[in-house]
Structure formats: C-alpha cells, structure tokens
Amino acid sequence: MRNDDQVTGGAGWTDSPRTDATGERPGTAPAKPSEGAAKPAPEGGGGTWHPVEVEGAGWRIAGATLATRKIRRPPIGGTSLSQAGILFLAGLALLAALGYARDLAVPIFAAFVIGLVLGPVNQALVRRRVPEPLAATIVVGGAIALLHLAIVMFALPMQSWIERAPEVWDALGKKLRLLQVAFGQIQDVSESIGRIGSDSKTREVVVKGPGLLGSFASLAPALVSEVVLFVGTLFFFLATRNSLRRSLLSLCLSRSARLTAARILLDSERALSHYFGTITIINVVLGVATGVAMWALGMPTPSLWAAFTAVANFAPFIGPAVTFAVLAGVGLVTFDGLLPSLVPALVYLVLMVIESQFVTPAVLGRRLVINPMLIFIGVSFWMWMWGPIGAFLGVPFLVIGSIALGRLAGWRDAR
C-alpha cells in the first residue's frame, strides 16, 4: 500500500513521486478530477476521494479528511473563555507572589522603573563613547547624590519634630478639646489624643530615647539590604541595557512580534522619562511655592514642608491628601484660633489645585492621558500592596500597561 501522506493541499493529486503496488513508478500522475465529483481511490487504498470545504479544498481518504494549509481560527467561545480564566488565575497568583515577596520585589521593580526613566540619560553618555559600565556608574552616582540630598532635607528638621512628638500631641489634644463643643463627633478622638498627651511617662521615655536613629535601628538591616538590592539592580540594568534589550527581543518568534516588543520598550522609556522629568520640575516648583508660603505665614521649618510637598506629590491623590492633613495638624499646634490654624492648609490646597488643574495638564498635554479613576485605584492598590513605594510606582505601572495594551491591540489587528 503506497504512502499518501504527501498531499500538500489544494484540489487534485500531488505531483510528488509515487510507486504503484508493484513498486514501479508510473509514467504520469493521474489526471485531476473535476470539482464536485468523486475521485477513484488509489490502488490498494480502498474507498473513494470526495472534495470537502475546509477554507478551500481538501480530500477524504477512507473516512479521514486532509485539511489545507489555511485553518480558520475558531470564533470566540469556550476556548477563549478558558484562556481568559487561566490568565486571570495566573494574574492572581502573580499578585499574591509579589505581595509575599515584598522585600525582594519592591527594590527590583523600583530599580526597573528608575532604570527606564534614566535610560535616555545613560544612552546619551554611551553615544558619546562613554563605556556602558562607566556611564551607568555616573548615572547611578548622580541619582544617589540626589537621594542623599533629599534625605538630608527631610532628616534634620524631621528629627526635631519627632523629638517634640509628645509636646505636639499634647498641644493638639488641647486644641481638639477646645473644638469639642462645635464638633461633638470627635469627642472620642480628642479624649484619646488627650490621654496620649497627658501621659508623662510616655513623654519622658520618648524624649530620653535614642532619637531618630534609635527609632530606625530595628529596621536598619532590612533597609540596608533593600537599598543595596535597589542600587545593584539599577546599576546592572543600565550597564547591560542594550544586551538585555537584544536578549528580550530574541525571545519573540516573529518579526512583527519583535517590532511590537521593541516599540513597547521604546515608548515606555520615552513616556516615563517625559513624565518623571516634567513631574519632577512641577513638584519642585510646587514645593518651593509651598515653602515660601509657609515661611510667609510663620510656620516652623518651612524647608521641611517644601520638601515634604515635593516628594508627596509624586503619589497622586494620596500624597496631596496627606500633605493637607499634616499642614492642618501643624497649623492647629502653631496658631491660635480655628481660622488661623487652617490658613496654611488652605493656602496649600489653592496651590495644589492650580498645579493639578492648570499647570500639569498644560505641560503634559495629551501625551499621558489616563482616566483619573484608574490612577486613584492603581495608586491605592499598589500602596496597599507595597506601602509608600507602591504609591510612587502606581502611575508608572499604569503608563507602561496602557502603552503595552495599545501596542498589542494594534499588533493583533494587523495580523
């Protein structure tokens, strides 16, 4: 019985070599049968050939159908739903793993995001024939210097406020008790704050404690390890940036997939660099304006509130809300009377509204338009997952996700 597995599709017989039952090769191939008619079976094959419609023509051999090269994709149905379910479960498992491995995942993902932001700076040095390791060293060193400057701006004035915490709680409790008549709903809160402020033993322990360094002593090993992991990941990401890109693109099987992946990487890098560069300038200006306003109003440590405002504004919605609450609390402790106490917070609110509603949209334009509800949910979710660093990474994750979805949708439509 001869081998008929060499049928290549299309209506008709194959032109590949055959042998008959005696082992001799026939001189010519059988003539092509007319379409729609039954074809005689080859010798020893049994049955007849019948044309079937499978995206063109095919043949039935003894009850078996041979399809052509083109196979029509199945419509959306059970297979697509099952794939969606598998992806959903895989996403939940990934989120659970990221939450469980928080100490490991936070510095690594933060390094990836900062690496994408600093990528164009590193590439500019490489184009000037600076070796990649040296360029990465320069960029990482500059980032560490800026981070150290921010920590110094926070630590010195913040330490005095931490040491004055019992006094601040006592003064805040007294102010809240004065407002008890107008706001009876906060009676329980004011009593608890009053008990905290009136506890002389607690006040004595805090004042005589080791201060700011002592409060972070227990967190030092974990903090140092996370900082080392962040710096190391950022350095190697920048030093091997081009080779990592080539390795990632080599995993794509088709040329269109490689182009789509390359565009996602390039667009994400450009968008994040543009976003962080613009937002950093805006936040610095907002912080300086807030510091000048706090100085003019007579608030203590205006430089602290300038730095706090600039850093907190990187977390949309949550950062400004925390800044408003902090300024309102400090105003209650610093000034007498309800209205003078709320003036610093109200001034900051005016500055923040001007920044968020007029300055930022005018500067960023329509290049990074994301639904505010998605921003709020994303920032809240990642803050719940990873704390303040998660709130900082929420918007970059949304930017990368929106770019990836847009490019993948265009790639799928083009297929």
Explain this structure:
Keywords: Membrane, Transmembrane, Transmembrane helix. Residues 29-42 have a biased composition (Low complexity). InterPro entries: AI-2E-like. It is found in: Membrane. Belongs to the autoinducer-2 exporter (AI-2E) (TC 2.A.86) family. The chain has 415 residues and is mainly alpha-helical. The chain folds into three domains: 1-74, no CATH class; 102-251, no CATH class; 255-403, no CATH class. It has 15 helices and five strands. It has helices at residues 78-100, 102-127, 132-163, 165-178, 187-198, 200-207, 212-215, 220-239, 241-250, 255-297, 302-312, 318-334, 338-364, 372-386, 388-414; strands at 39-40, 48-49, 51-53, 57-61, 64-66. It has a three-stranded antiparallel β-sheet, with no helix packed on it. A two-stranded antiparallel sheet has the order 1-2. Strand 3 (51-53) and strand 4 form a beta hairpin. Helix 3 (132-163) runs antiparallel to helix 8 and helix 11 packs antiparallel against helix 12. The longest helix has 43 residues, at 255-297. The model is unreliable at 1-29, 31-38, 44-71 and 199-213 (pLDDT under 50).
